[in-house]
């Protein structure tokens, strides 16, 4: 069962945009994870890690595809894992997708669903907003016990961080 509304928290956080300006964004997360998520985003802000945008998935009609297509960093979304009937960790408020265009979900064959993000499947590319293995973003999430989808075998989900690694 997905997280009930009473088990969620709306976070309003400041982040550095790709324009090098401070912006305020919104994330909905599980109440039990709220403190850890705030800690992670404080670290990213201090280290000036750029985030394209941070809006609620509601602005995209709940469509994960449209949110990703707009390069939106998001968390809670009551949805299943793509291609299955299993509830996503996003439905529990225990997963975050960060700069999903610069950090795409890459199929084992190297393809991505959002063609304008295809170039970011090349993880040797040096572009702002990309998450790097062992880098500041992965370390910030690891400090609160969250795992990175970039470590998955087969398909890699470079945008995805979750409390249980799924």
Summarize the structure in words:
- The protein is an alpha+beta fold.
- It has one domain (7-162).
- It is built from three helices and seven strands.
- The protein has helices at 34-46, 64-69, 136-143; strands spanning 8-16, 22-30, 95-97, 105-106, 147-148, 156-157, 160-162.
- The strands form three sheets. The chain has a three-stranded antiparallel beta sheet, covered by helices on one side. Strands 1-2 form a two-stranded antiparallel sheet.
- Strand 1 (8-16) and strand 2 form a beta hairpin.
Largest sheet: 3 strands, antiparallel
Mean pLDDT reading: 96
* Alpha-beta content class: alpha+beta
Percent helix among the residues?
10-25%
Strand proportion: 15-25%
The strands making up the biggest β-sheet line up spatially as 3-7-5
**Radius of gyration (Å):** 14 Å
Point out poorly predicted stretches: none
Shape descriptor reads globular
Summarize the structure.
The chain has helices at 34-46, 64-69, 136-143; strands spanning 8-16, 22-30, 95-97, 105-106, 147-148, 156-157, 160-162. It is an alpha+beta fold.
